[in-house]
Design a protein that fits this description.
With 167 residues, this protein is of the alpha+beta class. It has 6 helices and 7 strands, in the order αααββαββαβββα.
Length: 167
């Protein structure tokens, strides 16, 4: 059995995040035998996700930490250059009301009916998908309005690397 210090994600985090998968029991079993395995999770029930370019994701996290804001679970997919912040389910209207519609490549909001790939509780060394903030470390979700404020600040301060590198 995975011990909390070995898992990377504690048991509370594993229970919470696996509950979003289509078969939580199978997910927990898979993670016991292969803690680096990725799994798909349905969005819209336990959480939604705001996916942004990795450079914006890093800048947003720095702003949230500097402000002392609680930060929920954050996933990085470095190969794709994306970060996903988990937010409350059904937050799309609040998010879009604060930041405006996704035009081009600004961000991608994944809500009801969507799917998000999760890293295992202990990603394989060298894996491009990792936990930046693991679930089960307090709050699992970032407040969508706090995230929107930090996102708008970071977006204004972060130059675009290239047009094709968007979220």
């Amino acid at each position: 059995m995975l011990r909390e210090q070995d898992a990377g994600v504690n048991q509370a985090g594993i229970a919470w995040i696996s509950a979003a998968t289509r078969d939580p029991r199978d997910t927990r079993y898979t993670w016991l035998t292969n803690p680096g395995a990725r799994r798909a999770a349905d969005t819209g029930r336990l959480f939604d996700a705001v996916v942004v370019r990795a450079d914006l994701g890093r800048a947003v996290l720095a702003l949230l930490v500097a402000a002392g804001a609680p930060v929920g679970t954050v996933i990085a997919e470095e190969h794709a250059g994306k970060w996903a912040y988990l937010v409350g389910p059904g937050s799309a209207e609040a998010w879009q009301g604060a930041v405006g519609p996704a035009k081009g490549t600004r961000y991608h909001y994944v809500g009801h009916g969507g799917c998000l790939t999760l890293p295992g509780p202990r990603p394989h060394p060298g894996s491009s998908m990792t936990w930046i903030i693991r679930p089960g470390l307090g709050t699992n979700l970032t407040c969508v309005t706090t995230l929107a404020d930090a996102y708008l600040t970071a977006e204004a301060d972060t130059p675009r690397a290239c047009a094709s590198g968007g979220a």
